[in-house]
From TrEMBL, chain A:
Pfam families according to UniProt: BPD_transp_1
Top-level taxon: Bacteria
Source organism per UniProt: Paenirhodobacter hankyongi
Main location: membrane
Protein name: ABC transporter permease
Biased composition (Low complexity): 9-20
From TrEMBL, chain B:
Membrane association type: Multi-pass membrane protein
Pfam families linked: BPD_transp_1
Chain ranges of the ABC transmembrane type-1 domain: 73-260
Organism: Paenirhodobacter hankyongi
Lineage of origin: Bacteria, Pseudomonadati, Pseudomonadota, Alphaproteobacteria, Rhodobacterales
Gene Ontology cellular component list: plasma membrane
Subcellular location, record wording: Cell membrane
CDD domains in UniProt: TM_PBP2
Transmembrane segments: 12-33, 73-95, 107-130, 150-168, 189-210, 242-263
Protein name: ABC transporter permease
Biological process according to GO: transmembrane transport
Amino acid sequence: MTALSTETPSRPAAAASPAALRARKDRNRALALLSPGLIWMALFMVLPMCMVVYVSFWTQTTFSVEPSLTTASWQRFLGSSTYLAAIGTTLRIWAIVLVATVAIGYPVALFIGLFVRNKTVQTALLVACVIPFWTSFLIRVIAWRPMLGTEGAINMILMKLGIISHPLEFLLFSEFSVLVGMTQIYCVFMVGPITFMLGRIEPSVIEAARDLGASFGTIFRRIILPLSLPGVMVGAIFVSVMVLGEFATAASLSGRKVNLLGNIIVSQVGSLKWAFAAVAGVVLTVIITAVIALALRLVDLRKEM
Amino acid sequence: MQSRALRPVLATYTALFLLFLYGPMIVLAILSFQGPEGGPQFPIQEWSVYWYKHLLGFAGTSRVSQLPVGDSLLRSIALAFMTTVVSTVLGVMSAEAFRTRFKGSGPAFYLIILGMMVPGVLVGLGMALLSNTLGLSRAWWSTSFVLHVVYTYPFAFLVMLAIFNRFDRSVEEASLSLGVSPAQTFRRVTFPIIFPGVLSAMLFSFTLSYDEFARTLFTAGRALTLPLAIYGTFSVEIHPNIFAFGVLTTLFSFTLLVVYGLLMKRFTARAARFHGQEES
């Protein structure tokens, strides 16, 4: 037995074809090149996430946490209507923003990806969509305040036009302003992938359909929409993970009226309630994992990229 | 036929969409020229560059305290630079690894991509908990830095993956079979081909890190980065100096974009000249 086991590893190596040898060398090289990145991710992403789960079971004292395991924080979270409401708010805002970005973004993508056939104009329009990203995220959020406020641009214009006599109060520091802000900021993540998918549709396919007498409605339903759906899914994944983990937009535009799970984490950390923040973190992780898992069932991310 | 009628409708719609994207920034830029007595809203009391002077510390005594941007700006640039270098190197290495098929490439791919998916507030919380437990102090150049790389490395990786996918392997093989060493081949053959991708990966990493906020919030410790300094002003009343700051940072980003564009153009021009020589 022992003789056999010492002999086997050396023999295939000696007998291996040069192709097999090369394949093994390539594989080892690939693993060597990949390992620093994977180790980085394991240490600084996976380990902290495990830590969040672990700490959610620690005991919370007034200003610190102790590593004796308890489910007290979980009981407090799940027993509190405020925190359960935060889950509801997070899901509601996510669903509305997702629908809004698709509804607002799809026609734009349709125009850029399908109706503009001049490559230069197409690129210029896409760049125009991306340029706002070159402004700080927080500045883009705060820019909605002078736009929506009672003395803001929209109220001013509407009053000048005589449409309203008193400024609209619901525009700022409400759920509405959070929804508008998020839709504006994340819409481009929907426009981009859909445009990309639409741009890949062979013009001859649409021409053939038209020659065969199909109306635009039919062409859209039978050709354009199915071929663009992977783009919608990729966009939905982007928008979902960003909106679900949001807190800054709600913090600066809702006037503390909208509490997302992210806001709860931030405020709990602010008052050093680490265990409690960790519970909110785990809940958020579960929600996001469920959403991504669902989306990945519908689209293969690796194939689309 | 309907599609002919649809075209102007969609064009108008797209124009409105762009107005939606740019509107707030335009309003913000207009209000940044508010007079010294004016607030962060309409009407404009008088047109002035007072708040720009205020931001840069030339305004003298004022009812509004100055934004703490000086040191935090330097920290943010240093952090973005460190992040750019590390994530680009990691991105190039990983994308190069993905050119060969190996077992477990699927999970490895998703592990890397997860870095851009995980919400910043979650990894930030995890990192803060981890450093608390290990007794490490948190700082922008340590705990924040590693998280920034976790975030930007997947972007660099995806950019490089796209470049390598379009890259003809036989060019490298020709070089190797002519007896050029692997290191020399990488420097003289591979790198020039992937350079535009590297530049894009660097641009991505730099801007994402420079603007990153959620990952820094719990991990930066006492010394603030630029986004944290801006966030700190949100809780109190805002003044037009934030708007002036917004305009200036946007200009800074555009400068960066122009530099990138020029580098890219210069490089592609040189590559085109090279092709011309080969053909003649």
